[in-house]
Amino acid sequence: MKQGANDRITKDVWVVNVVAIQKGTKYPNRYIMMSGDIDSRVSDPNNFTSDAPGANDNASGMAGAIEAARVLSKYQFESSIIYVGLSGEEQGLFGEKGLANHAKDNNWDIIGVLNNDMIGNIKGVDGVIDNRTFRIFSEPVPPTETDKERQSRRFYGGEVDGISRQLARYVHKTVKTYMPEMNPMMVYRLDRFGRGGHHRPFNDVGFPGIRIMEAHENYTQQHQDIRTENGIDYGDTFEHVNFEYAQKLTTVNAITMASLASAPPSPTKVGIGGIVEPSAKLKWNAVEGAKGYKIYWRDTTSPTWDYSRFVGDVTEFTLEGIVIDNFYFGVASVDENGYESVVVFPNEILRN
């Protein structure tokens, strides 16, 4: 990276990511990724001499990625899993920009990026202590959508049904199935207010990506010089990390990646019809490896897919008595072991 790239790049530096790829047995070019970042900082982002432990931001996320790799590498999956440590996050998300562009240039099929940035703190600056709730940040629709797609949303809906939002819903569903004691909190925003994270560069080029992190941040421990003022210990140090909580959020990632890497691909084309009719009609393309399909629907104001029906090995189905105007719909592929793909929101209109 050349000096002057922004005000946080003060001299020429190499931006180097650490990437481990566990190749899938059936879909080696289809990837689910878990990332942490390997840089840290103090109050002045250009201060490279003071001690910046970065225990929670973001050694916690990196430890999670390494632990997930240790566990999941003992198994085989149909799709590939990437475990990555990204550089230059505090200087402008440079590590992920490079990897996202590499993935795009080499036609990687990225089905999901799980960016883990701060997964170890349970005591918020607001005084709340919570070791079960975590946040899933996701953008509503991709920035790469076309004018035609944007216009279609105006009339048919889908303002909160982009590929990253569907990935967030997949994490939510997986956690509620396998870790019901946890409280996944869907946040309808790309990231924290006015802040950023390493999933965004993947979003920028059209890949699904989300941020998984603690629910209650403590700003006295983020981007701070190590010091004590007015009885408050500032700095991102080891004693502030709750390891049991970090273990839980690592598990969230592991079960999500194992489920996704075991599932067949999603349908690419999902059509919907039923205008001025008492039933909703859906039609989709057949998917290699799918033994059946599941139709999901929900109230238009619901954040999650609340209703579903497995319809077997067919490529079209009519939901009798379900009025298209009152719900949103989607379709997922299902394999013989019950593993499901991410739900796909309709991208075509079936004319009567």
List the total number of helices: 7
Strand share of the residues?
A: 25-35%
Largest sheet: 7 strands, mixed
The overall strand count is 16
Look at the structure and give the mean pLDDT. 94
CATH H-level superfamily title of the largest domain:
Zn peptidases
Estimate the global geometry from the Cα principal axes.
elongated
List keywords for this structure.
352 residues; alpha/beta; Aminopeptidase; Immunoglobulin-like; seven-stranded mixed beta sheet; four-stranded mixed beta sheet; 16 strands
Overview of this protein structure:
There is one protein chain. It is elongated, with a radius of gyration of 21 Å. By secondary structure, it is of the alpha/beta class. It has helices at residues 55-72, 89-92, 94-105, 147-156, 163-178, 200-204, 243-262; strands at residues 18-22, 27-37, 79-86, 109-116, 133-137, 183-187, 209-214, 227-229, 232-234, 270-273, 280-284, 292-299, 307-312, 316-319, 327-334, 348-349. The chain starts with 17 loop residues before the first strand and ends with a strand. Strand 2, helix 1 (55-72) and strand 3 form a beta-alpha-beta unit. The strands form four sheets. Strands 1-3-2-4-7-5-6 form a seven-stranded mixed β-sheet, sandwiched between helices. A four-stranded mixed β-sheet has the order 14-11-10-16, with no helix packed on it. Helix 1 (55-72) packs across helix 7 and helix 5 (163-178) packs across helix 7. The protein folds into two domains: 18-262, 3-Layer(aba) Sandwich (Aminopeptidase), CATH 3.40.630.10; 270-349, Immunoglobulins (Immunoglobulin-like, Sandwich). It has seven helices and 16 strands.
